[in-house]
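Lab notebook, bench 4. Still working through the backlog of constructs that have no structural model yet. Next entry is a single chain of 377 residues. Request: give me the structure tokens for it.
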Amino acid sequence: MSNPPETSRPQTFGLPWPELNDGLFYNDVVRPSDSELTLIEFYSSKYKNSAPPLGWVQRIGNGQITVDGIVVTDPNTILRVGSEIVYHRLPWSEPDAPYMLEVLYEDDDMVSLNKPSGLQVLPGGLFQQRTVLTQLQWRASKQSSSVACQEPHPVPVHRLGRGTSGILLCAKTKLAKTRLAAFFADGTSHIEGNRNTNVETCGVRKISKIYRALVTGILDEDKVMIKQPIGMVRYPGVAKGLYVASSSAGKPALSKVDVLERGMQGNKTLVQVEIQSGRPHQIRIHLSFIGHPLLGDPLYVSGGQPKCFDPEFIDESFATDGGYQRPIKPVPGDCGYCLHAHQLVLSQPSSNQVIKITAPLPPVLRTQEEAEVNNTN
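Model written out:
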């Protein structure tokens, strides 16, 4: 097994965010099935998760939509087959987010980053520019500024919640992206193929992910295997639905939990979690399912369900840009919980050499012994 070389000063990169992002352009070509629809009918049906009908009326009236290059302000304009329609989402100030990233490991195929809590990985919702992907693009542009042919920028190959810190693996080539994505999918496919999968499954995997988490309450057992399926339900403010514990309609998921320390920080337990599958928000859902939600989790409570749950509630009010107001209820991207992607062991995609990557632990997730060692260094 190879460990990344030790360096006296970690390599970091990142550029401060501008006050406003660049806005967005949504391009569509009218299909035969959409011909004869009015402009407002088209947008309020195709992009109903972006804004309520009155919000789209406002956007059209503001001159933010063109049809074949001409600004149209009448919401009742009839659309014709083949017409190109473009909606310009005006630049906006995104919520605060950190921007500095630490490089934990890098070779010709991949780069591993230490992502801070509060930074989104990919564009979505209010965060279209303030993401890890943007910083990777800016870094690649700076590195290749003197090169005639710019190389593709690295891209993340797995999920990491906005509030989760720690290791984020990114591919630098198409081949590496394909192989690394297959490594991550491999464990999930084994779980799907055998609902009675046990811990030995991890022995055939080419990648292993270990997290640290601080949970509420005291876990009595030293080791816990959580085999709770995860499904999706309708939830206000989350367009595609919210992932929750769901025995009836969920997909198999497996988490191995080891207790590291109990009660050193009050009525809390410090745990290590190795996930054998990769469902969204799996650790948050699984630990809350067994009655020990992550400390500070604003969304999930005991049972693996959201704190506030009314799937039929729809808020038709809209913000100044015509879009929906930011949800009042907690959503998955909200931060505050204590979860860190601590270690990653994988096969290098070209050489198959086993590599172990470690992201330094935040103080709140260290054992008492680790804290004492850190203080003496």
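Notes after review: The first helix runs from residue 39 to 46. Confidence is low (pLDDT under 50) at residues 197-202. Flag for follow-up if needed.
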